[in-house]
Request: fold
Amino acid sequence: MKSITLLIYFLFTGVCCFAQSSDNPMRTPIDSAVARLMATYMKDGKRVGISIGVNYNGKSYTYNYGETAPGSKKLPGSSSIYEIGSITKTFTGLLIAHAITEGKIALNDDVRKFLPGNFPNLQYKNGSPVKIGYLLAHTAQFPSSFGNITGKPIETPTFLDSIRQIKLDSLKSFHYVYSNVGYQLLGLILENVYHKTYYQLVSQYITSPLGMNRTALNYSVKYANGQLSGYGANKEAVGNMPSTLPGAGSLHASVSDMLKYLKYQNAENNTALKLSHQIIVGDIDNGAHAFQWEIGKTWNWDQYLRVDGGTNGFRSFCFIYPLSQIEIVILSNQKDDSAGSGLYSVASGIYKVVKEIK
Reply:
């Protein structure tokens, strides 16, 4: 009865959604909820393409809206490839967790142990070194970026020279300050530890075992038609994220691949996964941070793990609810000032409906 009531409600409130280009079948309460939420998000006509994925009750659902490119009249699909921005950092965090469980790295290791040359500046005035855990939790007091990380690619020698110029204050507390530089450095450390490229490690530990065949840094001709371009506030084309120093935000993925990834994350079926969800700074009641994942509680005290990503032309969100076994991902190839809050509202709205259905 509850599901029937929800379906009737959303069919009425979401009727305007049928004007949107979409593959939403409009058969279930979750279909109707997605339609209603997307009607609000896309009502101004400035959006491009969006793919949504939901896992619950052992099933996966995907929804696609808009166009692959302005004026193309081509709907994105579950295999369309988006930049996922800082969601990449959760891949980096999981690789670090694997390195820790294999005894190659420790959370309290001095980062200089894994870098070529001397870096006397990578310690605080009290003598404490920058540690791996500080980079993971964004508490190292590193800058956000060296210039515009979405612009001209920065090569490793230049990056290391910039690292040598960082000036650190005394370590007063574990104060959270978001840093792309820290995760770029973690990606480089992984390459130095394993003597493999970053993507070779991503493939070995994550994408190949999970069958994530449409997640990569660069694509061959085979997938060229599925890789989307990004667009700005006025649907203007913008440049793609460079793949140099990729640990902070250079991966691309499809919504179907991300549903596999989130299901794997939520299952926590190995030591590395559990470790990557370990809180490093903060507490769950007031906002905590693990290996990139933000961990907290919802309005109804349901626990969540959350991460978002943004590049010049893409915006993305992932939500995991361990207690409810719900996973939600939203990928978009258009970014403006309201994209983040708008897509967050869509994801939160989907969770509330799915939670009610369950």
